[in-house]
Amino acid sequence: MTETPGRSLPTTSGNELSGSSDAARRGSGGKRLPEPGSRGRTTIADGVVEKIAGLAAKDVLGVHAMGGGLSRTFGAVRDRVPGSGKSNVTRGVKAEVGEVQTAIDLEIVIDYGVSISDVARAVRENVVSAVERMTGLEVVEVNIAVSDVKLPDEEEEEPEPRIQ
C-alpha cells in the first residue's frame, strides 16, 4: 500500500475488519470478544440429520426405497393421514446427534441387478458428504441394512387405506 502525503490509510491484520476500531471489538472488561459468528450455540436436531441423510441416500442410483417392508407398509398408510408421524424422507433413517459428531443408521431397498457393495459405498459417501457439508458435524459412521431387493416385475405394495 502506498501512502499519499498528509493522509494515512487504515491497515488491518488478517483477522481484523477494515475500518473498525479495536475498542468496538472489546467488551466492557477490555477483553477481546469472539468473532460475531462464534457467539452462541447451534444445536441440530436428530430429525434434521435424518432428513439430510434420507435425501442423500435416495439420490444414489440403485436405491429403490428407504425402510424395510413393514415400515414401508405402515408408512404408506401413515403418509395418507396428515400430521401422522415420520415423513417419507426419514423412513428407514435413524440418527444420533451429539455436539460435534453424528452416527447414522439406514435401512434401504435396492434395485435388482446392482452391486450391493457399490451402492452401499456410494450411499455412505453421499450421506457423509451431505451431512458434513450442511451441518458441520463429523459423521463417525453410516450403518446400512439392505432389507429387500426390488425385482423388475414386482409391483409396489400399497396397502388398502383404512381411512377414507
UniProtKB/TrEMBL annotation:
Residues 1-43 are annotated as: Disordered. It holds the Pfam family Asp23. It comes from the Bacteria. Coiled coil: none annotated. Residues 1-17 have a biased composition (Polar residues). InterPro entries: Asp23 (IPR005531). Transmembrane segments: none annotated. Belongs to the asp23 family. This is Stress protein.
